[in-house]
From TrEMBL:
Activity control mechanisms: Uridylyltransferase (UTase) activity is inhibited by glutamine, while glutamine activates uridylyl-removing (UR) activity.
Taxonomic lineage of the native organism: Bacteria, Pseudomonadati, Pseudomonadota, Alphaproteobacteria, Hyphomicrobiales
Polar residues composition bias: residue spans: 932-946
Protein name from the UniProt record: Bifunctional uridylyltransferase/uridylyl-removing enzyme
SMART domains: HDc
Domain notes: Has four distinct domains: an N-terminal nucleotidyltransferase (NT) domain responsible for UTase activity, a central HD domain that encodes UR activity, and two C-terminal ACT domains that seem to have a role in glutamine sensing.
Catalytic activity, as annotated: [protein-PII]-uridylyl-L-tyrosine + H2O = [protein-PII]-L-tyrosine + UMP + H(+); [protein-PII]-L-tyrosine + UTP = [protein-PII]-uridylyl-L-tyrosine + diphosphate
SUPFAM superfamilies: ACT-like, Nucleotidyltransferase, Nucleotidyltransferase substrate binding subunit/domain, Poly A polymerase C-terminal region-like
Domain ACT: 744-826, 854-937
Protein task: Modifies, by uridylylation and deuridylylation, the PII regulatory proteins (GlnB and homologs), in response to the nitrogen status of the cell that GlnD senses through the glutamine level. Under low glutamine levels, catalyzes the conversion of the PII proteins and UTP to PII-UMP and PPi, while under higher glutamine levels, GlnD hydrolyzes PII-UMP to PII and UMP (deuridylylation). Thus, controls uridylylation state and activity of the PII proteins, and plays an important role in the regulation of nitrogen metabolism.
Length: 946
């Protein structure tokens, strides 16, 4: 099927679709409703007209969807929907003029043109797109024009279509477009649907002469500023894992912006004309069409699937869209991950085209005064030559090439340009980036083996000022993925889960940014410990290389940590690292998850936990390296993943391990540090009466003092004091954390084995999903439990009211005003997400702790899961000593330290298997019965929860 090359315009349609949407047949069917002398204004006739239009619209859309499955062309589908809309509007206008208003030959003053503008004017519509219409008049509104517009609009609305419309004269259009870039943009894409062509021609002449002429630069600046603001609002990255296909960075609107500027500045309508003008090469013109076609296909499938104008490619619909587009699983990548990688590669292509286009625009502006301006430009370039090189120049604080042969003459220059830019703190000229993209074939095995090229790359990676910026430019230009092919494999790769907010390559670059910021002391308040020792680390290059490589083996069938270590072993010598440094990088990549897993999923008060971790780390220097890598890795996962509690856990693990590695680990040293912690809290409570202060200081065990930040300790002390003064048996307190998008609920209650299950059930019944939980016991037999739930409302006041409702639900359950069966009935209506599958895994380990059995449970999260798990553990006659709740998007990894009722470890394979079956059933039978909390006495106190 032939496709037209007009930018954004309708390709040539197939005869088959034209037959389905035959305008003449539709017009004849409408005419038959009234006969030769009938009155089309009869309400019964209008009802029949609407019925016919509904059938025609439905038939046309079903045919467009079927053909989209057959040929896969998004541009063709968008053109078919637009063509169908044209057919309906023309048939209605013809019928209305001849049969409803009896004005088949309107007078000169009654002339009207129904004009498609905006996206509809381009001849492309998604199934749920708005239909933008302009009713164009010669002088002023007439009764006939008003009647026709009203008749057409109400029919379109009754069809369920969204219609944007305006009724204006030619004079009004010109005047408004001259003062409003949005109206000017819409009129750029004008197309006659029905009515007087002469009116549209008149508008075109006046629009070019009175609006466009002499204002091209202002229009370009406005469109680029509008694009930048849109990108900033959408997150300013094209690698969000739930991208907006219409408005996001690298999405359709970016291509539309290029089209608008091309029409306004170059006066072109086709890709071939852009190629002829030298803006794009022939291959880049084909890339433009490929990107537009793919994005339209995705958008049309989204609208058909959801039945609405859904523009966000959310997790819920990604698997179905991948299936509709014909993607299949591949070793290491699911069908949806392959689809999303293709999507992000297309988004990157759109970014490349934007850079090339902007370079051409800048070159055009430089040619406005070819004589004097070219001379001044040449003089300026010569005056700003970069010292030590003849290949590169500085143009307005941007590095550019001296001539177009610099990369052919010496391919090492493909790395040198980034090293010079980082060294001299320069941006990149669009001309240089365009030439780099067109020279990628020069990045071959010989260049990869070149010692100077590798040394230059390492200089960029370890830049003291802003390595992430220059690596990002290197990645966008395609050099990074070609120079390190293993990195190229994870460019634009998405992990289909709710935990990671970015593609793999974006995550790695953001982790580099975190390390750079840490080195420069930007996070002193958030990361006091790592900021304190980062300057003492002598292996800077090791850290930067390890961060760049730690996830480089994602998407492979084997474990990415093991495969990544193998890549590091082979790559590091090439980059110039010696044997010791290579071994360090290899170890860091292999064990890059160990510290975060230990901190979040193990009991840090258990000496064996610390000993096992210290055995993995071995030296203090390696401990520091792993700590920095872990912090940067977590902070680069996505917004709100890092929080103060995780920071405190890592500080605790670091402190305990440091003492063991340096020979200072002992109960006395631990007691000494706990005493110091109590002194810090005592200082915070200095205004309290001495007796009351001493009582509060004696309420907590050492693990609380060692693991909870002193700010939180001070807040908890005030909470406990207020509760005691009121003589309450139990109480709750709620607070919001807008910065981290989380909500925290603190519960003080008499301790009993099912307390955590009760709190979790109450949270689930209130519609709150627990993301984290901390459980402490006090010396007077109470439990201080702190649960963190995902935020629901953006406004703090709304979120605080929600948190207080959750807290009241917990209190009602505790004092018997609410029964667990009612809560559970409400909770069971919620089901796990259908978009994700996580196979349940239950591990039982007696070696991780000296006196406790460790249950590690992994599976698909759902509301109320923690209540079910803790209830099931109680049913199994196990006592929870500590619980460590970790949520990674849709997946939970919950770890419980337990004993039997006698305080002993769980032994015997038979009993272990019963535990596995019972906990597995919690995932496989989410609606199953869960025991209610009882009042069974227990001598076992709750421990610390992470």
């Amino acid at each position: 099927m032939q496709r037209a090359a007009r930018i954004g315009a309708a390709p040539v349609l197939s005869p088959r679709f034209s037959e389905i949407t035959d305008e003449a047949a539709l017009a004849a069917e409408l005419e038959a409703l009234v006969g030769e002398d009938g009155d089309g204004s009869d309400p019964a006739v209008r009802s029949a007209v609407l019925s016919i239009l509904k059938r025609a619209n439905g038939d046309g859309r079903r045919a467009a969807e079927a053909m989209l499955f057959e040929d896969g062309s998004g541009l063709l589908c968008a053109a078919r929907i637009s063509f169908l809309q044209d057919t309906l509007i023309r048939a209605v206008c013809r019928f209305a003029l001849s049969r409803v208003f009896a004005a088949p030959n309107p007078s000169q003053g009654e002339r009207i043109a129904v004009v498609a503008v905006g996206g509809y004017g381009r001849g492309t519509l998604a199934p749920g797109s708005d239909i933008d219409l302009l009713f164009l008049l010669p002088y002023r509104q007439t009764a006939l024009g008003e009647q026709l517009a009203e008749y057409l609009l109400y029919l379109l609305w009754d069809l369920g279509l969204k219609v944007g419309h305006a009724t204006r004269t030619v004079e009004e259009c010109v005047r408004l477009a001259a003062g409003d870039f949005t109206i000017r943009t819409a009129l750029l894409e004008r197309r006659l649907v029905s009515g007087e062509a002469s009116l549209l021609d008149e508008l075109g002449r006046r629009f070019e002469a009175e609006v466009v002429a002499g204002t091209g630069r202002e229009f370009i600046a406005a469109k680029l500023a509008e694009r930048d603001a849109r990108h900033q609002k959408a997150g300013d990255t094209r690698y969000l894992v739930e991208p907006n296909v219409k408005e996001g960075k690298g999405a359709l609107r970016d291509l539309h912006t290029l089209f608008w500027i091309a029409k306004d500045h170059y006066r072109v309508d086709t890709r071939e004309e852009l190629v002829s003008a030298g803006v794009f090469s022939r291959s880049e013109g084909k890339l433009f069409e490929k990107a537009e076609d793919f994005l339209w296909a995705v958008r049309c499938h989204m609208h058909f699937l959801t039945g609405k104008a859904e523009e966000r490619l959310s997790f819920d619909i990604q698997p179905e869209i991948a299936s509709r587009l014909g993607y299949s699983d591949h070793p290491g990548l699911t069908e949806v991950e392959r689809f999303m990688k293709h999507y992000f590669l297309i988004a990157k292509d759109v970014g490349d085209l934007t850079g090339i286009f902007c370079a051409a625009l800048e070159e055009e502006n430089a040619k406005d005064a070819p004589g004097l301006r070219s001379l001044i430009r040449s003089l300026r370039r010569r005056a700003r030559q970069i010292p030590g090189t003849l290949a590169f120049l500085v143009d307005n604080n941007r590095i550019t090439v001296a001539d177009r042969q610099v990369f052919v003459q010496d391919p090492v220059n493909l790395l040198r340009i980034f090293q010079l830019a980082s060294h001299h703190r320069l941006e990149y000229h669009p001309d240089a980036l365009k030439l780099i993209r067109r020279s990628l074939r020069l990045v071959d095995a010989k260049l990869r083996a070149d010692p100077e090229a590798n040394s230059l790359f390492l200089d960029v990676l370890t830049d003291r000022e802003d390595p992430e910026f220059h690596l990002r430019r290197m990645n966008e230009a395609g050099v990074l993925g070609r120079f390190i092919p293993e990195f190229g494999r994870i460019v634009a790769m998405m992990q289909f889960n709710m935990y990671h907010s970015y593609t793999v390559d974006e995550h790695l670059l953001r982790s580099i940014r975190e390390l750079s910021g840490l080195e420069k002391g930007r996070f002193g308040g958030e990361l006091p410990m790592t900021t304190g020792f980062i300057s003492t680390i002598r292996d800077r290059a090791v850290l930067y290389v390890a961060l760049l490589l730690h996830d480089i083996a994602k998407g492979r069938p084997e474990d990415h940590s093991t495969a990544g270590a193998q890549i590091a072993r082979e790559l590091c010598p090439r980059l110039g690292l010696d044997a010791r440094e290579t071994e360090l990088v290899e170890w860091l990549v292999r064990d890059h998850l160990v510290m975060s897993m230990t901190a979040q999923q193990r009991d840090l008060t258990d000496r064996r936990t610390i000993r096992l971790f210290a055995d993995r780390v071995q030296t203090l220097e390696r401990l520091k390296l792993l700590t920095v890598l872990t912090v940067c890795d977590i902070r680069a996962v996505g917004p709100h993943v890092w929080n103060g509690w995780k920071g405190q856990l890592i500080r605790t693990l670091y402190g305990e391990t440091e003492l063991m590695l340096t020979g200072g680990y002992s109960e006395s040293s631990r007691a000494h540090r706990a005493a110091e912690g109590r002194l810090r809290l005592a200082d915070r409570l200095g205004a309290w009466p001495e007796a009351e202060r001493e009582r509060l200081l004696g309420l907590h065990y050492d693990n609380y003092v060692l693991t909870v930040p002193v700010d939180d300790q001070e807040r908890h002390a005030a909470f406990i004091r207020a509760v005691d003064q009121k003589g309450l048996a139990f109480a709750t307190e709620a607070r919001t954390d807008g910065f981290h998008a989380m909500t925290e609920i603190t519960v003080l209650a008499p301790d009993h084995p099912r307390l955590l299950s009760s709190i979790a059930g109450a949270c689930a019944a209130a519609g709150a999903n627990i993301a984290d939980a901390q459980i402490f016991t006090t010396t007077d037999g109470r439990a201080l439990d702190v649960v963190t739930v995902n935020r629901e409302f953006r406004d703090d006041a709304d979120e605080l009211r929600r948190a207080e409702r959750i807290a009241r639900t917990i209190e009602q359950l505790m004092d018997g005003r609410e029964a667990m069966p009612g809560l559970l009935a409400r909770r069971r209506q919620a089901k796990p997400s259908a978009s994700f599958t996580v196979s349940p895994r239950i591990d039982i380990d007696n070696d991780l702790s000296g006196q406790l059995t460790v249950l590690e449970v992994e599976g698909l999260d759902r509301p109320g899961l923690l209540a079910d798990l803790t209830g099931a553990i109680s049913d199994l006659n196990l006592d929870i000593r500590s619980a460590h709740i970790s949520t990674f998007g849709e997946k939970v990894v919950d770890v419980f330290y337990v004993t039997d009722l006698l305080g002993l470890k769980i032994v015997g394979e038979g009993r272990a298997e019963r535990i596995r079956r019972r906990l597995r059933a919690v995932f496989e039978e989410p609606g199953g019965e869960v025991s209610q909390p009882g009042t069974k006495p227990s001598t076992i106190a709750f421990g610390m929860t992470s």
